[in-house]
Amino acid sequence: MAEEGESPQETLISSLPPKMQHSFFGRIFRPLFEESKTLTGIMTWLGVTILIGFIFVAVAAPFIAPYDPEDIFVGERNESPSIDHIMGTDRLGRDLLSRVLWGSRTSLLIMLAAVSTALSAGLPLGLFSGYVGGRIDRALVVIMDSIYSFPGILLAIALSIALGKGILNISLAITVIYIPLYFRVIRNHVISVKQELYVEAARALGASRWTIIRSYITLNVIISIPVLLSINAADAVLTAAGLSFLGFGLEEPIADWGLDLGRGQPFLTVGVWWTSFFPGLMIIILTAGLSMLGEGLNDLINPLLRKERS
What we know:
By secondary structure, this protein is mainly α. The chain has helices spanning 8-14, 24-34, 39-64, 96-132, 134-149, 152-163, 167-193, 197-204, 209-221, 225-246, 257-264, 274-301, 303-309.
């Protein structure tokens, strides 16, 4: 109930939940710093550190790589790790350290392009479908569920064959996999949030549909985005590496972890382990860091999980 003398705008503001009175970044970083000494906080900060480390390597690769990653015969073929070639060389005599460093740039570019494009498509579709409802909502749900039910790696392979190889095409192929996920999560959240009192109050005050979606629903729904982004980013790295490993991703001579892993795999039987080990290790470290970041953010941001821990 509004207090006597209170304006309609003040009534609307007072009906907002406490979480809406904090900024988006404050709702993320406040619990991150408050829980920094807990297991969840340590896991989250470790994930952040790993991601920042790979971003630094990707940016600095042209300056810290000892050789051009595409130069052949800078050493002997399949030369074991040594002082001159810390991670050894591959079957063409290319320096593996240089290819691993430049490969971080390739993986992060594909990851960034895939998750950002999927978010740009899935977020507005989920917001619109969840709020409007009706036949449009049912049609979008059927389309998204059809895409979501298809095995992700098989869909990515089919799209990569249709679109062709290359960083942009592979990113688009991976994007299609994640759009339904963002759509489903956002839509379900919107359906729940649009029944809240503060949304009803905004409607009663005559706010337009787009104002309600932008100012009252999006701010409360978008808090789940960082968790989805980090988890999808880890999956994008694995999917891109899997496509290149299977021969449906990038092509030589571009430096790519999945590509180098696939090209080095046949030499494992003759004791040449380093050509597969180091690219595979980079994939594991990056995906593990992104997964820890996603799970940590989920525990820190989700009020129900935080309540259970306390």
